[in-house]
Every structure is written in C-alpha cells, then in structure tokens.
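Illustration 12: Heterokaryon incompatibility protein-domain-containing protein.
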Amino acid sequence: DIYSPLNSTKREIRLCRILPFSFSQECVSCVLSTVSLDAAPDFEALSYVWGDAADRVPIIVNGQRLLATKNLEAAMRALSSRAMMGFGASRDFTRVVWIDALCIDQTNLAERASQVKLMGDIYSSARHVVTWLGAE
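Figure caption equivalent — predicted structure in token form:
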C-alpha cells in the first residue's frame, strides 16, 4: 500500500521526496515519508491548480504506479530538474515537498478531514511555498 496510517494526535503528515528527474525517464518518481509537524521538519510546500481531474498521467510513488493530474506531474518534473534546484546543486539533490494530492490519502475521508485542519500549520511550517501556475 502506498499510504501508511497517520497519527493525528502526533500531528503527523507525509512529505514527498521528489527524486532527480532526467528526460530519459518514463515517469517522475517520489518517496513518501511520515513526520510530525512538531519535530519541525525541513520541507517546502507546493501550491498549484490540480487541473483537469480526468487528464491524468502516471508517476511512481513509493515504487508503485499512481495516476496524477498532468499539472501535478509537470510541477513535480520542474521541481526535480536541475534548473529549479539552484546553482551548484548536486546531481543527487532531492526536494522534500508537501503536496496535498499525494501527501494526503485522497481516498480516506477521515484522514482528508484531519489533514485539511492542519493545512494552515503545514503551509506556515514550510521553508518555502512554491506556487506552480503551469508549464507556460
């Protein structure tokens, strides 16, 4: 299973480590990990428009294929590219990002409700909030 349960009393969230992307790859890949907001994790948050929910492309999450909106996949691809990493970033550099569509199990209504209550804290705890307006 892609999602392990979160402990809401510990203010747990999932963070997405986007693996470096090369254009020879078929899919963007990432790994989810669970952390407590109280532990002051170092991460960025992504703010973006989901786009057309019916227009989906594959990505790899925790080694499993998942369908994401084209807009999310494009944002992840951009975030993982060397151009977005900053001058002098090493080839092994990865971005750790909170992304609502991936870090919240969208099929679990109780988790979704609990995580939505934490969103203000999530965004205010992020080192940066990256806004993705689209590939253009």
